[in-house]
Amino acid sequence: MDIEQGFAMPLTAQTGDISPEEFRASAHAAVDWIADYLEHPERVPVKSRLQPGDIRRSLPASPPAAGEPLDAMLRDFQQTILPGITHWNHPSFFAYFANSSSYAAIIGELLTAAVNANGMLWVTSPAVTELEQVTLDWLRQLMGLGDGWFGEITDTASVSTFYALAAAREVAQPDIRARGMTGRVDVPVLRVYCSEHAHSSIDKAVIALGLGLDNLVKIAADEQFRMRPEALEAAIADDVARGFRPIAVVPCVGTTSSSSIDPVAEIVRVAKGHGCWVHVDTAYAGPAAIVPELRYLMDGVDGADSLVVNPHKWLFTPMDCSVLYTKRPEALRQAFALLPEYLVTKGQDDVVNLMDYGIQLGRRFRSLKLWMVLRAFGADGLAARIRFHCELAREFAGMVHFQGGWELMAPVPLSLVCFRYAPAGASEDDLARINATIMEHVNASGTAYLSHTKLNGKYTLRLAIGNIRTGREHVTAVWRELCAAAQAVGT
Ligand code: PLP
């Protein structure tokens, strides 16, 4: 091929990026829009009111042949895309677990996109690896964990937990990496344990690792939805007697349905007695350990092998940012490290190459936004915000408790309140229908957004506080709306 010919196309407006002037103007406009949006997030309905297909129908079915100006895209973003956004940044977003952007983190995201670093190897951007390690060591200290934890950032708790259980499987049966698990009679059935209230990400990890859902043993919880260590002990002993091999236990500090806190220290004692890896799921509640009086949340965690915490939940860091800590990074390396020739770097045997600690090769510079959040608020500022959210949750729980016809469905150790409207004489089926209708009323209003769960088979409303912009007025407003909705629904 004629190389000259291959590059014959002249450098015109059709090649290269748009002009810096156009970028500068549009970027300033976008930042102005962001500042206005976050200053008044309640101007938009919290839950998108669009129907399935609305967004697709309002967009051209095929891409433009000629390039379009950036300001046209900004206009379409506001007019067409924004109505299809459910606003997790809205101060009355009380569904699931909170996840809010803060200004410092947004700047971090902007700079991350600008430098576009890929930290697959130390050498491909030393700052990506080293800032991640420093930032995660800061977070470890903030949460009151001891020394000896190695941290890495992943996208979600689901992936962090998958990695942790992959390491546990590797330690239990190292030859699976080479020989796999199928068609073998020499590998016993490998078993994993978690509470009946554990998050479905544990189930997914067990599926993905080929362990089989039947081998995820759900341990009964007590009346406060905490895993019962004696039930764990009995389940493991029973499995051992049947020839199964227990490999991992996953206690949770801050379960999704009720924010219950499993007794980690006792679970570690039982699990270690049987040689199991302990992975602690603190995806939601971990940041609360930054508050000195909530440090107890980490009791026993230093005896575990790994832990997941999500700054993209309660640490004011936008999606996505999950942190996996482990005391046994060599097990992660054993599970995942591979070195093809094209990734060999000479003379850097003593550096951390983050590609060795998981599936992904390319790696976003996620630590920058988290580092900026930790610096913008400091330990005291983070603790004050999280403490305030817990205070608001207790106040809301008080309103529920003292209002006739309503009841709390679980203790409120942190910032999640589980409750329902329970008029006298209504059956369980009626209560489920009434509370679902109340929630639909509130969610359709666009002024607040709640989600639900089931506790002991009972339909339960969840009010999860944790958004950086939530104030007392938002909590009292949603309570008024709930009461009005209950009156409208009646029995
Ligand atoms: N663990 C707990 C306790 C959770 O509440 C959640 C999500 O809410 C997860 C894990 C999964 O988090 P992610 O969406 O980051 O995978």
In words, what does this structure look like?
The chain is an alpha/beta fold and 491 residues long. The protein has helices spanning 3-6, 20-39, 54-57, 70-81, 103-115, 126-142, 157-172, 176-179, 200-208, 229-241, 264-273, 311-314, 329-336, 367-402, 428-445, 472-489, and strands spanning 150-154, 190-195, 216-219, 245-250, 277-281, 306-309, 322-326, 406-408, 416-421, 451-455, 458-464. Strands 1-7-6-5-4-2-3 form a 7-stranded mixed beta sheet, with helices on both faces. Strands 8-9-11-10 form a 4-stranded antiparallel beta sheet. Strand 2, helix 9 (200-208) and strand 3 form a beta-alpha-beta unit. Helix 7 (157-172) crosses helix 13 and helix 14 packs across helix 16 (472-489). The longest helix is centred in the C-terminal third of the chain and has 36 residues, at 367-402. It is globular, with a radius of gyration of 25 Å. The termini are far apart. 42% of the residues are buried. The mean pLDDT is 95. Bound molecules: pyridoxal-5'-phosphate (PLP). The site of pyridoxal-5'-phosphate has 15 residues, from helix 7.
